[in-house]
Specification:
The structure holds four protein chains of four kinds. Chain A is mostly helical. Chain A contains eight helices and no strands. Chain B is mainly alpha-helical. Chain B has two domains: about 15-415, no CATH class; about 505-554, no CATH class. By secondary structure, chain D is mainly α. Chain D has eleven helices and three strands. Chain D is globular and about 55 Å long. At the A-C interface, helix 5, helix 6, helix 7 and helix 8 of A face helix 5, helix 6 and helix 8 of C. Strand 3 (about 450-455) of chain B pairs parallel with strand 1 of chain D.
Chain lengths: ~220, ~550, ~475, ~325
Amino acid sequence: MNLTFSLAHLMGGIILVLGFSLLSQRRLAAMITIYQLQAFVLSAAAFWQGFAQHEVNLYLTGLITLGIKAVLLPIGLRQIVLRFNMIRAVETAMPVVMSMILGVGLIGVAVLVVLPSTLSAVSLTREDLAIALSVVLLGLLVMTTRRNALAQIIGFLSTENGLVLAAIGMPGMPFVAEFSVALLVLLAFLVVGVFLFRIREHFDTLDLSGLEEIERRGR
Amino acid sequence: MTPSFALYVGLPGQGMHLHLDALSLLFLGILLPQVVAGAMAGMRKSVTFWVFALGMGLALAAADAFTLIFGFELMSAASWLLVLRGDQKPATLYVGTAIFSAACLIPAVFLPAGPLAFLLIVLGAGAKAGLAPLHFWLPRAHPAPPAGVSALMSGGMVKVALYVIIRYAFVVLAPAAQPWWGGVLVAAGAASVLIGALRAMLEGELKTVLACSTVEHVGLITVGLGIALRGKAMDDATMAGLGLQAALLYAVAHGLYKPLLFIGAGEVKHGVGTTALDWLGGLVRGMPKLGLLMLAGAAGMSAMPLGPGFAPEFLLLHAAIAAAGSGGIIARIGFTALLAVLGVGAALALGAAVRLFGIGFLGRPRTLQAAAAEEARRGPLAGMALLGALCVPVALLPGLVLNLLTPVILELAPQAQTPPLAYAPLSLAVLAGLVAGAGWLALRRYGVRGTREVAAWNGGFGKAPPWLPFGDPAAQPSATGFAEPIGRAIGRGLLAPGGADPAEAFLLAPLQRLHTRGVRLAERIRRATIRQRLAFVFAALVVFLLALGLGEGS
Amino acid sequence: MILFTIFLPLLAAPLLGLFGSPRQGAQANAVLAGLVFALTLAVFAAPGAGLVHADDLGLIFGAITGFTGLTTAITNIYYVREAEPRLSLRRWRVYHAMCQVVLGATLLGLYADNIGLLWAAVEGATIAATLAVSMPRTPSALEAAWKYFILGGVGIGLALFGTMLVYLAAQPALGPGFAAMSFRALTAHAAGMDGSLLTLAFVFILFGYGTKAALAPLQGWLPDAYAEGPAPLTTALSGPLMNVALLAILRFRHLLQANFTAGGAALPPGPFLLTLGLASLFLAAFSFSRRRDARRFFGFSSIEHSGVAAFAFGIGGAAAVFGGLLHMLLHTLIKSALLQVLIRAAALRGSTAPGHYGFSHLRGLIYSNKYTAWVLGAAMFALSGLPPSGLFASEFIIISQTIQRSPWASLPLGLGLLLCAVAILRNLGPLVFGPAPVRTKPGRATLETHLVTLHLVLAVVLAFAMPPLPVHLLSHMAEALQ
Amino acid sequence: MLLTLLLRLLATLLHAALMFGLAPLLMGVVSTLRAWALGRRGPAFVQPYRDLYKLLRKATLAPDTASQLFSAWPVAGVLALAVAAMLVPGFSTGLLTAPLSDLITILGLLGLARAATMLGGLEAGSGFGGAGAWREALYGVFAEGALLVVLLCFGLLAHTVTVDGIALAFATQHIGISVSLGFALAAILAVGLTETGRIPTDNPSGHLELAMVHEAMLLEYSGRNLLLLNYAAMLRLALWMSLIGSIFLPFGMARAADILSWPGGLLLWALKLGAMAAALAVFEVSSAKMRVFRVPEFLGVAMLLGMLAGIFLFVAARIGA
């Protein structure tokens, strides 16, 4: 039983570290790889929790994660990178060091926030919650500090990893698999959207083109 | 005998409640003739007009806060629509003021009785009544709608606002009343008197002049109320009595002659096509009946003896003298200054009335339209005649009217003394009649009769060209010229640079600048890219989490 | 019965994809909406049980949603007639399917007793609405869709996290299983929940559903989505969606409040809600004055009103909550009425395509059609909250409660309402009575204009002569959720 | 009882008769004394009567541009002044009109007269009438303010504002020569000079268009109307003199109730008026007319003096702040 927790913590910790290193990356390819790793660990964590809690739909979650997030989505993202040849480093809204300091701060916030919660005997402890929360926040930070659409999407994906991480930790929570599926639909839409709308560099360009168009018509 | 009703519409599960006491009845009475006259003046078919009247009635008869404010705002909304149809420019300012008064009144009615509630009431209702420094909207908005509506706005709507002040200052908040409350009212009133009278003297447009004079009269009524409130709080029976007598009698009189003047202005507009004084002139010849009625109204507006406006003025001055006889030295000096202000205001009002009638209705026509103006239509004339007829008792038998007011006064200030009026217009009229009779006999006996018409000496100007049968307009005094020296002598001290109303220059303009700044900020937020918007969300989230963490950590 | 109500539109959506012509699709859409409305009324008799179990709020707002959906669908018929050539048949099919999906998801969100279902409903509605917004395929429409999608997606993520945290916080009281996700159970055991965790959960819930409710600073997607999407769906149906989010916030807020009052470790929810509410109010107030596109303008007014509702919930107490709920009801009616008559007005001026709703296009409507112009004016006026508009009643209640519970908050509230009302009324004059653009032809009013009038009348009646039943239901729920 | 009433009625009638009868004489006295002071022979005291009679016999002309009300204004002006003149106590207090003689009423009547003259000036629509009217309006603004403030002092000192009561109070109870009364006197003199249209604010005999005020408004009037207007001017002078007299020199005024005190009162009244006329004449020849726009300042000073009078009164009464 003790092993359960320690392993769960370990995986959570790895996920967090990966999320953090996502923040430090400039090149899309590397970001995708890191995301892929995160997804792998996540699926592993899901399997482990399923084994620990004897929950079938956690296995299901793990399978979905493994199949789609760890395999399919990265492939699609790489496709986009190749198609729009975005090999070169992406510009960041703020210096990476700055964003990393912010990231540390965010982790601090997460810890500060979950500290007072008194979690009695449930499988997901404060640490796990803190980890999941900080993964979510880091993902959001990536979204806001990267100017590139794809980078932002990757940030969103890792946010969503954090969500699933929290979900699988929930003791006997219903709908976990359904939640992850629903989230996947969302993500699929995102990636498909990038294809459909052919966003070259980042949303801002689309913004601008839209803006001019609209200013002419009067908004 | 105070009937109450409950309506089954209103707040969900609560409804509305009406209650008629002496005060409500008095103000309803003030309202009634104006509504009739306004309807006669051509508003009979307008639904909005009747909604407007209904709103005022509700506000006056209200027994609970919701009904009061509902009626108040219904009145504002309906009149706003009428203003809007007339002229779109002032409508926004007008509705802004209306909602401002609601934003002050709603909190005020729910606050515990105290200074804050009182000040909010004065702010809210005062803004609606056009009390300085919140009067800037009035001279713009009142002239905009059709004459019948302007009449009701000037004669009735401001009264409803004053009714709210009276209701709360004297009845609802009475337990907490303090002398300085009266001081606040007096100060605001005095400011309104000064600015209103001065602008009435300077404005060049008939309806605007009337609106400014409304500001002045609201100020006079408020001064009366302030003195009475102070007297009530200091338990000074004479002050309370005189102040209330003055204020209420003024409310009655002003509710008669001001609508009359506004309807007349509307008829001038209809007959001549403009109400700019510099384009009128010699209208008495074309429209004698209208001219005489306007003369009566102007006499009331300038508080001439034997006119409807003098008795309240008389009472007000006595109240001020009585007030100066008590209290601390600061207050006394203040009331001395108040007397000076009242004097200046009265003289300015007289000047304005003379200018209004002398430039607009006497002298030579300044345009062909003015020369060709025909007598006013029957309906409006009838309305004016009604109001004029009602002026007569107020003018000649003010004592009787005061007796009618006594129950209201006692309801508002139980300890108030209401001594008999020392001004007896009737006996003055008798004296005048005797003298007139004697003089007429003398002239008849010795004088030569008859009057011969000759060409007027046109002051050494050349002969007017033939297409100006009534002489060269440029060669006769103009409204602008008449007002200019007074503007130069007094205005320079009181008005903002450029002759603007100080309230507009020092209150309205800064607010507008502030608003523009806010708009710029909002626009910057709106133009944010998606990433920036995300950043907003994220930052807000982190801030909230931090607040949460600290809130629980502590 | 209730399941049928929800799943009728969801299941019928694909069928709408089969119609050969947009018009038939629109008519079928209207018929479906009519059925749904009837069913929402029938639900009063059978509120259902288990995961999907309508409480009184669900009933009332469900009925309003059904009504709005019906009128919108009827408006939609005329809209399609006018707009048919602008989109391909395929797109029209998707569009009508999405209409039904949004309707169904909204109802699901209103009736769901399970917080997970609620979340799923909101997510589905978001995706459907995004599809619909991107429908016209103009660059600006795509931009709007993207904003909607990204911000909405983030919001949904946060909402999910919040939901899970609520579940976690409920563990001490309810233990694992469905019970810990049912509103009824949670409400019953709010006192026993983990307060601090609950507070944390509430922050995420607030940000998640607040994004759907377009509270500042989460409002970024709304004005563009309003202005660029196909008129009937994105605008007229967004009111009910907003209600779903606001009701969710209200319910979770109650958990927090209950835990707090029961001496739990939770923080009082008031400050959070007041902050967001006032922020939205002022953002809207200052954003009004430079708008040139009518629908974007009224998008900001939606932000304003959801801010007011959030503010009322933040004030708390039965009366304030009642005021907030009344405000939401009336706003839904008035706003959808307004947007429908706007469509009509744009049709009178030639085109209902996005971008043809500029004030400069619609100016001086009275010269095109008196009746429509007056109705439009009436709707805008109703939005300003001056009597006899119904919103006056709700705003009166809210302000009076503010005065009694947290006096100083009433100052900014009054100021914000003042600015907003003035900004709205300032545009009314030119829009209705102003000088019309050149070559304006008089047009006819159609059936939907009467429907709009019906909306407005209903709003006034609900505000000032509310029949006992809704008064009872609303006040009862306000008691329960105070 | 009835006797006193009868006596008071008699006194009132006598007062009215004297006022109306002697007003022209007073004007004549002033102008003649003025001529003497200038070293001229000057007209006879009764010259005004001759002028009035002349006007009475002359035909009345009305400009064709004037309205129906042209002849109404002089009548209104005269009537207002006549009523005022009957209210102000002359040689005796306690007239029948005493209760009516409220200073505010008198102020109002003077204002009415002023309004009538101004409207008359605007009648014909000629430039000079207008100029006179606006000057009159401009002066009036400051004059009324000053008068009301002074009035306040009287009211506070005598606890009444009826001229009769003030005269009685100042005559009987010992007020003493206080600073404030001095200020009040100065203020009221300034106002009186302006109201009666004397130098330094206006020149009754000068017909220089650019400077005249009262005369400018009479330009279009002739015959009967001009008679009325001139007579009104005379009444105004008499009114003001007896007003100032009965307030500031109330000693020796008769009481209407006992007939024995009448002769003394009459005599003293005549002396007071004569003295004031002489003083006026001397003042007029020794001072120059001021520019139109100096007059507001002149009257503003008067208003200030009035306020000072009030303030000193409060200080004297030792009222705590």
